[in-house]
Design a protein that fits this description.
Helices cover 54% and strands 17% of the residues. With 117 residues, it is of the alpha+beta class. The protein has one domain (3-116): GMP Synthetase, Chain A, domain 3 (2-Layer Sandwich). It has helices spanning 3-23, 59-71, 73-83, 99-116, and strands spanning 36-42, 48-54, 91-96.
């Protein structure tokens, strides 16, 4: 599959899943409305997609949201199958992405070092 088509499918997945979260279609109470999808890695044969999820809330809220999304992945996949016009609908795995929190920690450390010197 060409790289362009692959990127387009990942972008479509991100748009559709994000809108499902914002509209409240995922009824699991663990899924926070403050969750955002950072990136999606789709397998070359479209059978699998790893969805990286982050939030500005605390780590526990992120873990609960990831658990809720993984629990609802079958429902999400069935909705995606109806919306996407592809042969295979990827099986979704949601993964916590803590890079935002780590980046904020690094920035605060740099700022403290700058103030100390």
């Amino acid at each position: 599959m060409s790289g362009y088509r692959h990127d387009r499918i990942a972008a479509s997945l991100q748009e559709l899943v994000s809108s499902m979260i914002l509209k409240g279609e995922i009824k699991d109470p663990r899924v926070s409305h403050f969750v955002q999808l950072n990136r999606i890695e789709v397998a070359s044969d479209n059978t699998f997609a790893k969805v990286f999820v982050s939030t500005f809330e605390d780590e526990q809220s992120l873990q609960r949201s990831v658990e809720g999304l993984n629990r609802a992945s079958g429902f999400i996949q069935s909705k995606l199958g109806k919306a996407l016009k592809t042969r295979n609908t990827p099986k979704l795995l949601f993964v916590a992405d803590t890079s935002i929190h780590k980046g904020m920690e690094v920035n605060s450390l740099i700022e403290r070092l700058r103030k100390d010197s």
